[in-house]
Specification:
This protein is α+β, with helices and mostly antiparallel strands. It has helices at 37-47, 75-86, 106-115, 122-134, 139-146, 150-160, 164-171, 177-183, 189-200, 207-215, 224-229, 231-236, 257-276, 309-328, 337-354, 362-365, 442-461, 464-481, 509-524, 532-538, 541-553, 567-580, 602-613, 615-621, 626-637, 695-698, and strands at residues 12-17, 21-23, 53-59, 65-73, 95-100, 219-220, 241-242, 253-254, 282-285, 298-299, 303-304, 358-359, 369-374, 380-387. It has five domains: 12-115, Conserved hypothetical protein from pyrococcus furiosus pfu- 392566-001, ParB domain, CATH 3.90.1530.30; 122-261, Arc Repressor Mutant, subunit A, CATH 1.10.10; 267-391, no CATH class; 459-557, no CATH class; 579-698, no CATH class.
Length: 705
């Protein structure tokens, strides 16, 4: 007959007064970790003791119980209760639920309690937070209860809102926590599942690839179109904003692109209509205009509205305050934050005084127009006062020297032979002596003025200073007045447009600087062309030279076009670039997916990375597909100053990596995917993060060298 299995007996449970409990030296926990004693005490005060203490009776030398109990397992809970007693929030005799153990080893009890308990799966934690939210607790209340930041609560709720299908995959270890974080960018479960299916066909399953797939086609919140219409207005119109709570996203992505385009077009139309009310003949509105869109149009020069006495007084007061602060802190190594901020405020206010509104002649307004677009920072850009050639007033033909019909030439007699040369061409006849004081004939006028022209050429050649003014006068007429006939010099200035417009060319820092300089000169020049000569003579040599440099710069054409081979001209462009010290990196050009990386082969991308960051950096992205490689390369090349060959200035090869010998020092590159603000992970302080040996290779955020 088989022996019956011995039945187990559980330890008894007792309520023991707190002052009968002491800590045991048998507790295996020595290192402080997890929630602080103070936080645990607050939790016990709120909900009570959820788990009793494991205790053993204290005996004397004879083995008799003394009435005291030591605690080998539950020391942190005891410390929390002790804290509440010290704060007089609990009496010393408060009964504490305890499990009384007498058998076995005390150290074994302590170890078993801490080792054999299974940690809560992260997904269960996310879902628990969601349940609390559904039962009416606010995010702030949940955060206060569990001693985490509100942002951590939002992150966990976001994780719990991912498609149930993907959550089940995560629960079965089918994806990492970092991948799950990436899926939270979009709240569309169907879209999440579609991306996951695409991910199975791709060798690149990194979080950044998931984010890119979820946001492809969306408009970044930092895009000037989004800034122009306003994120709040877009949301009020029913638009959806995709956000990433686990890393910086520059405000997120606007998912509804058609809505963005509609709102942009509608707002530009309304802004253009408001400008038409000013009396302009036309307005042309678009989010962007190509660089040089005003070439061939005459720009009106209006009159700046002068400052009022009140404005002048305010400006003078700001200047005095600025000078005082600069003098006061002239010898300081570093300005105090409040002083630095105040100086910035004053500079901004003074710039506003300098940027005065302009008024135009109503007679000019009725035949001119304005361009309405969006500036690089999302503000409205209005370029007023441009006259199209077809709207110019045609001047009346000059009278004198010719017949009443205005032809200015000698008409043949009815017989058809008088006044003609032997070869059949008309030749002006000399007046007879008895014709009185008649106008000089065209032929004689040409002969006389030929002598004068030669004499004028010779005299001008002996006066380089006046020759410079004359050339400047002729070129200025061409650029700012479009009346080249107002000068006797047969000089012309050809300012070519660009057959190919790169993205953002008109919004670049160089374009802004060139446009601002042109506008400044336009305001300084006299309104009427016949006043220009006297104005130039009155200017200083420095001002004339600066204007001359600006005008000559407009004639530069260093564009390489397959249909227009100009090797010697392009070679001269290199010489000119070297002479003026051109640095396109300093000028603001950056290698991005749009400007370069997305439009060249993988080999050229890897070459660029090798030149800028070394072969090891190139090897880390060599396995990526073209689109992913371009995206990663953009981050790697940021702030390196690397330039492709067509943008390099001769003599600056070392900076651009052409003399790279071996691998340069690699930056300790890479900022890994972070899960929360201020160092908090999505799992809290007790969560364990997985080691990732390839983190440096896959991260898309690279620290500058």
């Amino acid at each position: 007959m088989a022996n019956a299995a011995k039945k187990i007996t559980l330890s008894s449970s007792r309520d023991i007064p707190f002052n009968k409990l002491v800590l045991s030296q048998s507790n295996v926990r020595r290192v402080k970790a997890g929630v602080s004693i103070e936080e645990l005490a607050e939790d016990i005060a709120r909900r009570g003791l959820l788990q009793g203490l494991s205790v053993r009776p204290v005996t004397d030398e004879a083995g008799t119980e003394t009435g005291m109990f030591e605690i080998p397992a539950g020391g942190r809970r005891y410390r929390a209760l002790e804290f509440l007693v010290k704060k007089k929030r609990m009496t010393k005799t408060t009964p504490v639920p305890c499990i009384v153990r007498e058998d076995g080893i005390a150290e074994e009890d302590s170890l078993a309690e801490n080792v054999q308990r299974a940690p809560l799966h992260p997904l269960d934690q996310f879902r628990a937070f969601l349940t609390l939210k559904e039962k009416g607790q606010s995010e702030e209340e949940i955060a206060a209860t569990f001693f985490v930041s509100v942002n951590v609560v939002k992150q966990r709720l976001k994780l719990a809102s991912v498609s149930p299908k993907l959550l089940d995959i995560y629960a079965e270890d089918g994806m990492s926590l970092d991948q799950l974080m990436a899926f939270t960018v979009s709240g569309d479960h169907e879209r999440q599942e579609q991306v996951f299916e695409r991910l199975q066909q791709s060798h690149d399953k990194q979080p950044y690839a998931i984010r890119r797939m979820l946001t492809e086609g969306a408009v970044r919140a930092s895009d000037k179109r989004a800034q122009f219409i306003g994120i709040d207005a877009y949301v009020e119109a029913g638009g959806t904003v995709l956000r990433d709570l686990f890393q910086s996203d520059d405000g997120g992505w606007l998912q509804d692109v058609p809505l963005v385009e509609y709102m942009v077009t509608d707002k530009l139309r309304r802004e253009a209509e408001a400008i038409v009310v000013e009396g302009w003949k036309w307005t042309d509105a678009a989010p962007d205009f190509p660089y040089g869109h005003t070439f061939g149009l005459r720009q009106l020069r209006g009159e700046e509205i002068p400052l009022t006495p009140e404005e002048e007084a305010a400006r003078d007061a700001l200047k005095a305050e600025f000078d005082q602060l600069e003098e006061q802190y002239a010898e300081a190594d570093e300005l105090p934050d409040e002083v630095d901020a105040r100086l910035g405020e004053i500079e901004t206010a003074l710039e506003a005084f300098e940027d005065r509104p302009v008024t135009f002649d109503p007679d000019d307004i009725i035949r001119a127009g304005a361009f309405v677009s969006i500036a690089h920072d999302g503000s409205l850009r209005v370029e007023r006062g441009f006259v199209r050639p077809e709207d110019e007033i045609v001047p009346e033909p000059e009278s004198g020297g010719g017949d009443a019909d205005g032809t200015g030439g000698t008409q043949p007699n009815p017989d058809g032979n008088e006044g003609e040369t032997s070869n059949g061409t008309e030749e002006p006849s000399e007046p007879d002596e008895d014709e009185g004081l008649s106008p000089i004939s065209d032929r004689l006028m040409a002969e006389l003025t030929a002598h004068r022209t030669l004499g004028l050429r010779n005299a001008l050649a002996e006066r380089p200073d006046i020759a410079f003014v004359a050339a400047l006068h002729a070129l200025t007429l061409t650029v700012f007045y479009h009346f080249g006939s107002d000068s006797c010099l047969e000089l012309g200035l050809k300012s070519v447009g660009f057959s190919s417009q790169t993205p953002g060319l008109n919004d670049s820092a160089v374009a802004d600087a060139a446009n601002a300089r042109h506008e400044t000169w336009s305001r300084r020049l006299p309104k009427e062309s016949d006043e220009l000569w006297d104005a130039l003579l009155q200017w200083s040599d420095e001002d004339r030279a600066s204007l001359f440099a600006h005008i000559v710069s407009l004639s530069v054409n260093a564009v390489s076009e397959s249909w227009n081979r100009r090797p010697r001209a392009l070679a001269h462009a290199d010489v000119l670039a070297q002479t003026v010290g051109l640095d396109m990196a300093t000028a603001g050009w950056r290698p991005t997916v749009d400007t370069f990386l997305g439009r060249v082969t993988k080999a050229r991308i890897l070459q660029a990375i090798t030149e800028a960051k070394g072969a090891r950096a190139a090897d880390r992205i060599a396995h990526l597909k073209k689109g992913d490689m371009a995206t990663e390369a953009e981050a790697l090349l940021a702030d390196t100053g690397w330039l492709p060959e067509p943008l390099r200035t001769p003599g600056d090869l070392e900076r651009n990596g052409n003399e790279t010998a071996g691998d340069p020092a690699e930056p300790e590159a890479v900022v890994a995917e972070t899960a929360a603000e201020d160092g908090e992970t999505a799992m809290g302080t007790d969560d364990v993060t997985e080691d990732n040996d390839d983190a440096e290779a896959t991260s898309h955020v690279v620290a500058a060298e």
